[in-house]
Amino acid sequence: MLPCSTETLIPLEELEVEWMRTDSESLVHLFQDGEIRPESQNQAYSGRASFFTEEIKHGNFSLLLTNITTEDAGVYNCSVYRQDESAQTSVQIKEIERLTVTGGHVISAKADEAVTLNCSVDSHIPPEEMEEVSWKKVDQDILVLMFQDGEVKTESAHGSYMGRVEFFSLDEISKGNFSLRLKDLRTEDKGLYMCEVLSGEFSANATVEVQQLGFSSMHIGVLVLCILAFVFAVFLSYHARTYLIKKYYGRTALSVQCVFVISPNVAMFLAFILWGVIEGFFTETATCSALNLLRIVFLFWTAPYLNTFQDNVCRFIKRSAVTLEYAVITTVAYSGLLLDFWHLYQETQEWIIIIFLVLFTTLLLVLYIIIFAQGFTKMKSRTLNYLLAALTNVFRGLVVVFSYGRNLATVIIVILQFLPLVLLVFLFFCSSRIRKMKIYVFLLMSVLITEVLNTPISVYVHDTVLESNKERVGLICVTVFLHILTVMLLFHVLVLIFEKLLSRSDLNTVRTEESQSDVMVYIFGTVALVCVNSIALAAELILKARNGERTVEDLQVILIPSECVFALCCLTLHITTFCRRYRVILLYALSICGCKRTSVERNHELEAFQSTEAASAAQETGT
Fold this sequence. Notes:
Blueprint: E1 15-21, E2 26-32, E3 35-36, E4 49-51, E5 63-65, E6 74-82, E7 85-93, E8 99-102, E9 105-110, E10 115-117, E11 120-123, E12 132-137, E13 142-148, E14 151-153, E15 165-167, H1 170-174, E16 180-182, E17 191-199, E18 202-214, H2 217-246, H3 251-279, H4 282-302, H5 311-333, H6 335-348, H7 351-376, H8 382-404, H9 408-415, H10 419-430, H11 437-465, H12 472-502, H13 516-547, H14 556-581, H15 583-592, H16 600-622
Helix pairs in contact: 2-3, 2-13, 3-4, 3-13, 4-5, 4-13, 4-14, 5-7, 5-8, 5-12, 6-7, 6-8, 7-8, 8-9, 8-11, 8-12, 10-11, 11-12, 12-14, 13-14, 15-16
Pfam families: V-set
Keywords: Cell membrane, Disulfide bond, Glycoprotein, Immunoglobulin domain, Membrane, Receptor, Signal, Transmembrane, Transmembrane helix
Protein name: Ig-like domain-containing protein
C-alpha cells in the first residue's frame, strides 16, 4: 500500500488525485470528476493498482498495488488538486524482497533416456548466494542432488542417483536456472520430484512429475529372454522326459537333454545380467545370475545320463558340482558384507577383523583350488570338501557378527557350529579304537544332527545381527541354501564311511536301479526352477515399470527358496538311494539301537552281518 491522505475534507466533485511514477512518467492511477478513471492508467498497472473507494471521501487517497515485481521499484508521487490549490507527497518502493520458484510440469519418457526437470528461481538474492537448493523425490523422501554454499554437493546424491544427476553450468545457475538433468532413466525413477529453495526466512518450491516410463530396448531384451527360457523349458520337457523313461541315451537324446538343461538357464543368466545393468542391484543380480549358471552343472549332476559323458567331464561334475555351487554363491552373496568388513577395518584398524577377513577369503580360495584339483586330476577327497565348507560357514557367521553387531552370546552361538567338525575329526582319528558299533553309529548320527541344527543357528544369527541391513532377508535365504549344500557334502562323507564299514563284511550291497523319482527330480529342476525364475523376473519388471518402485525388494527371496526345495529333493533322493543300497548295515544299526526286526529275510541278513563283524573283531584281537 502506498499512503496518501489529507486532513481537510474535499468535496469529490472538486477533487482530482493523480498517482504518477516519477522515473517513467507513467500514470499509475487517477481520480477525477468524482470518479475513478481506470482507462487512463498505464497498462502495466491495469488491474494491479486501486484506490480504497469508500475512503476517498474521508481524505484517504492511498493506493493498493498488488502482484509487485522488480520493475515496480521506484518513486511514486501522489498529487492532490482542488481548483487552484495542489499538494503532493512521494513514496519510494525500494528493492523488493521476493522468492519465486517455477517449473512444475509432467514428464513422460522411456527408460535409459535423459530428461530435464525444470526449476527456475526468481529472487532479490543472487542465485549463487542461495542458502540451499535441493531436489528431492517426494514419495520416497530421497535427496537427489543439492546446491549449497555456492557449490554443487555431488556427494549428497542418493546412491541410486549417483553419477546420473547434475545441474547445468554455473553460468546457468547464476541466471537462476536450477533445472536438474537426470540421465539413464530407470523405472524406479517414476514419481514426484520437488525443487526446494531455502534462503534465510524465505522458502519456496515447485514440483515435477515423471510418469509413464516405457520399456527400453534392454527391458524388452529381459522380457524376451524370460519368455524364451520359459518356452524352452516347457516345450522340451516332454521330449526329455520321454527319452529318460525309455532310457534312450543316444546322440539325439543327449543333444536334446543338453539343450533342455543349458538353453533356459543361460537365457535366465543373461536376463539377470541385463536386469543388473538396468537397475543396478549388484548383490541380487550376481547371486541370481550365478544360481542360473551353476544350475546347469547341478542338473547334470542329478541327471540319470551323467555316466554317458566324457570321463573328465563326468568326473568334474560328480566331484565338484555341489562344492562349486557352495563356493560361488558364498562369494557373490557375501561380497557386499566382505566389503563392509574391510571398510570397518580401515576405520578401526582392529587386528581381529583382518584375521577373520584373511581366514575367510583364504578358505574360499583353498576351496576353489580343491574344486578344480578334484575335477581335473585324480585327487578325490569328499571329507576335505565338507571340512572346508563347514569351516567357511563358521567364519562366515563370525564376519557377519563382527561387521554388524558384536555380542558375546552371538559369538558363542556361532562358535558352536564347530561341534560337527569336532565330532567328525574325533570319529576319523579314533575309529580304529571304537569296538562297539553302537558308539560308532551314535557318533555318525551326532555329526549329522548337529550339522542340521547349524542351519537354524545361522538363521538366528543373520536375523538378529542384520536387523538394520536391507539385504537381511536375502542373506537369510542364502545361508539356508548354503547349509543345505553343506549337509549334502556331509552326507557324501557319511556314505564314504559306510562304504568302508561295508568292506569289512562279506555282504554285497543291493544294486539300485534308476527310479521314477530320479526322473521327476531332474524334470523339476529343469522346468519348475526356470519357470519360477522367468515369471518372477518378468513380473517384477512389468510391475516396476507400472508402479515406479519395487514390488519385491529382493528377488533372492523367491529364487533361493525354490532352489532350496530342489536341493532338498536331491538330498532326499540320495538318502533313499543310500537306504536301499545299504539296508543291511542300517538294519543292523537299528537292531543294536533296540528296534524290532520286521521280517525273516532281514533277520538272516542281520545274522550274517553280525557273524562277519564278530569274525573281523576276533581277527583284529588276535593280531
